[in-house]
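Design review, sub-item: ligand-bound model
Attendees: FS, YL, KQ
YL presented the inputs for the zinc ion complex:
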Amino acid sequence: MKSLMRRCGACSRYSLVEKCPKCGAATVVPIPPRYSPEDRYSGYRKRMREIWEAEQHG
Ligand SMILES: [Zn+2]
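KQ shared the predicted structure:
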């Protein structure tokens, strides 16, 4: 898939090409917010804790 939205680094205009059609500056692909490794890890720990508690109350 190559339909990534790009954004001009100079005027912040969104476009699909590597060069801003408005000012001619280079555009970049803004990195979308993702789940941080920390969040994944905390989810994993929560799960481990549930297992651990189940064992304690076994
Ligand atoms: Zn621009």
